[in-house]
């Protein structure tokens, strides 16, 4: 479910945010506290930035209400122990720029000129990514509480819709991590990237990875086992699907350091587990909006919201 909710969130701010080339700079006004939501302030500047965001999207909305909901999303994520790193936010921001065929510096300029500001947009991204994970956790909890259908029931439901058992690619994967302690990241990142690229260039299947990594410092090789395509983590899914069996994905930076995924094998399978996963995804897609509204309504009812 994590994959579904992340995709939905990305679609929200990449699919619907139409960047206008003629954005006008919003006037700067003195900032005052307008709302306090569970002891967290929302200022007139926050609301002004969100209104500028609406203009950039060419849509109407209640900026104050959106800021209240954003504050509640972030607070709920914090309560659940969900942490969205600055790197995750910056990566999403960069992907947004690329998706709109511009450099990050160009996007920065548009955010500034329009009155949205880069920081406001990034906090919006952070709240969406955090809310994704909160929704995923809620969905799993509700499904668990209701009692999930058995694999046989999932297959029967699928066949009732007139189709055959769906198929999916089953991967055997290996994760290779070049660990970088946080205190050493700035000084060693470039060196560790070179080491990872060198090992990746020699990768020709999963059998020899442990041996290749033996002479390298702080390298972890994890056999991830059987993973079906719908279960792939979103951050790796596209790269894994483009990589042939016996090859490796590109090297990417993560919170752990730098890493790549080796594709040991890939084959098409059609079994009860595949049918169950497909059915779960269909159910999640159908109920995501309703679940999000219900969850937010609950948070608002419990919240202490003071208008100044």
UniProtKB/TrEMBL annotation:
PANTHER family: CHAPERONE SURA (PTHR47637:SF1). Residues 66-131 form the SurA N-terminal domain. Pfam families: SurA_N (PF09312). One of its GO terms (molecular function) is peptidyl-prolyl cis-trans isomerase activity. The keyword Signal applies. This is Periplasmic chaperone for outer membrane proteins SurA. Residues 1-23 form the signal peptide. Keywords: Isomerase, Rotamase, Signal.
């Amino acid at each position: 479910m994590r994959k579904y909710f992340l995709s939905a969130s990305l679609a929200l701010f990449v699919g619907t945010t139409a960047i206008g080339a003629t954005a006008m700079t919003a006037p700067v006004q003195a900032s005052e506290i307008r709302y306090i939501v569970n002891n967290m302030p929302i200022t007139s500047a926050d609301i002004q930035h969100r209104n500028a965001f609406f203009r950039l999207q060419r849509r109407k909305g209640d900026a104050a209400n959106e800021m209240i909901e954003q504050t509640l999303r972030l607070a709920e994520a914090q309560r659940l122990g969900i942490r969205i790193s600055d790197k995750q936010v910056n990566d999403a921001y960069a992907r947004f720029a690329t998706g709109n065929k511009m450099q990050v510096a160009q996007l920065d300029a548009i955010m500034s000129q329009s009155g949205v500001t880069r920081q406001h947009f990034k906090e919006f991204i952070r709240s969406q990514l955090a809310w994704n994970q909160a929704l995923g956790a809620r969905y799993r909890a509700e499904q668990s509480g209701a009692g999930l259908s058995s694999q046989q029931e999932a297959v029967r439901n699928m066949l009732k819709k007139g189709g055959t058992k769906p198929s999916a690619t089953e991967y055997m994967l290996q994760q290779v991590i070049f660990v970088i302690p946080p205190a050493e990241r700035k000084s060693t990142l470039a060196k560790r990237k070179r080491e990872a690229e060198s090992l990746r260039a020699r990768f020709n299947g999963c059998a020899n990875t442990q041996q290749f990594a033996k002479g390298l410092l702080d390298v972890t090789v994890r056999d991830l086992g059987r993973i079906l395509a719908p279960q792939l983590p979103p951050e790796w899914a596209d790269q894994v699907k483009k990589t042939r069996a016996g090859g490796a994905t590109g090297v990417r930076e993560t919170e752990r350091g730098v890493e790549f995924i080796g594709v040991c094998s890939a084959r098409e399978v059609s079994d009860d587990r595949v049918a169950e996963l497909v059915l779960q995804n269909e159910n999640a897609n159908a109920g995501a909006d309703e679940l999000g509204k219900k969850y937010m309504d609950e948070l608002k009812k419990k919240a202490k919201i003071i208008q100044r």
